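cron nightly-structures :: item 1 of 1
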Amino acid sequence: MKSISNIGLFIGVFLATLGFLNFREHAQRSRGVQIKHEGLTRALLGRTGAPGGASTQRQVTHDDLTAYPFKPVEDVNIGVQTGHFFGSDFEGLQPNCTIGNTRINCRYGAALDPEKADALWYHIPSMGAGSKLVKRPKQLLIGMSMESSEYYPALDNKDFMRNFDIESSYRTCSQVPVFYFDYNAQQVANLFRPPLPFEEKKTALVYVNSNCGAKSGRSEIMRAVIGLRNPIVPTHSWGHCDRNMPVKDNNFNKVELIHGYKFCVAMENSITKDYITEKLWQALEAGCVPVYLGPHNVREFLPDPEAIVDYNTLGSPEALMKELERLANDKSAYEAKLAWKFRKWEELSPSFLAMTERSHDYHVKL
């Protein structure tokens, strides 16, 4: 599941392209001017301090506006050079972003002439071993991936990545990060969906997994957990891996299913820094307490650092089940794991708010 949208991705990509290419000759004239886009600055949920609300708006000064004597409309063209997972409609125009008094149009797609494009975009997992990167004068190369470097080690190859002027990936160090959680209005609304009351949830650990050979070892871990046959917190497996529940239709809604459980498995298929996928966000949205296996810095992404049961800190199936038993028998301790859903926006984890801010306010630092 890839939650990032075509438009959301390319807004970030083309603004980075502007920052690196179109306006760099003006670097000495102004710094840190905000680029605005109407669709990215709407308030979320009416929460105090939410992205786009009054507390996070930045003011562009008169000096900022006059620092850019450009023509009324600037065009940026990004040529798509590889296959990708966004579908067949990966051609488009993103109009009416602004910097100062200048309106900017971004055109992207495979039909653009690569000889004339301002930048060329490559989906790194779709690049073959013999792919050649040709860089023309005043043209940028953009490398994008939402896949883990454990499965696509080219992402960790410094010599290869050095070919790209802009990295667009799940990594927070990339110029245009593409998180699996978009931090847009709809996804934030889903995230704060109220959980079912403690008494109405099944006291069990729900497990939905269809990739039984993941590099993270989650299948082996969960096979051991199921083998413990815990009588207080049994494991209900609904996926293809070690299924023990009667599944009539494999097209069930996962979020609705796990919404009815106290605990749910949210383990990544591979473990590398910053690689946090929809598995965690689906669990948080559903209001079950996630049993998580992933990168060591996962708490930087969470609305509350205590919102998960981190398997890494427990270290064994036996320790995990002991912790789930404790929470199942202590309503207050369990509900404390979900208390973040009822807090004001500004009371959430500062690192979560920083991720939100980065995702909604795009800047060009010249």
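cron nightly-structures :: done
Confidence is low (pLDDT under 50) at residues 22-62, 360-366.
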